[in-house]
Amino acid sequence: MRASDAERERVAELLREAVAEGRLDMDEFDQRLETAYKARTHGELEPLVQDLPAPGTTVAPVGPSAPAPLRGSAANWPARIGGTATSKGAFALWGGFERKGRWTVGRLFTAFAMWGGGDIDLREANFEDREIVIRCFAIMGGIRVVAPPELNVEVKGIGIMGGFGEGANEGGEISPDSPRVQITGFALMGGVGVDRKRTKAERRRLKEAQEAELEARRRRGLEGPDDGGFGEGFGGGRKQL
């Protein structure tokens, strides 16, 4: 069965997500992407994504009914929910605390900072439950929460002569499969900030993937479109990728 432009793009998107998550290295990504753009049939496309996960399947489909791939860290949500909490709270007085990297957030996590500060990084974290409550109390201090764009975050805190989570819902690409994280509490003459951003490693992989894709498109353009032997006289020719 002949592949469409939309199916080639769907495979390219799955490959981009795979390299962003570290499932493919750049050499593999470059080779598969070039093959995807040259593919004329489903039989040529399917092996390129057969070993990559897609939501709810073990083989990534390429047909018209294939679901849109989840972006970035969102593809890992099912595996990141559940397990025993490694931390249920943090405290800083004239000092600081940090929770980052691979850790498991308790279903109720309480953070307190007075004349000090703390960082709560959720970008690579696991979650004890699908419903998580993070209580933040900052008195003449500050607490910063960093979340990936796909995480469902709801902020309900209060700022008194300070700020609490302004702009927390800007720039999000919420995944329906992500846990729901509610951030509550108050800031008195201090602040609780909530930022959405990807990790440096993920941003670097995405940038490298974009550069490799541009190079593959450039090479494809120099080679010229493959019309499958029909020529431009049949249906106006094929669109060049």
TrEMBL record:
Biased composition (Gly residues): 227-241
Residue intervals of the DUF1707 domain: 1-53
Regions crossing the membrane: none
UniProt-annotated stretches for the region Disordered: 199-241
Basic and acidic residues: compositionally biased ranges: 205-216
Pfam families: DUF1707
PANTHER family registered for this protein in UniProt: DUF1707 DOMAIN-CONTAINING PROTEIN, MEMBRANE PROTEIN-RELATED
Name used for this protein in its record: DUF1707 domain-containing protein
Native organism: Streptomyces filamentosus (Streptomyces roseosporus)
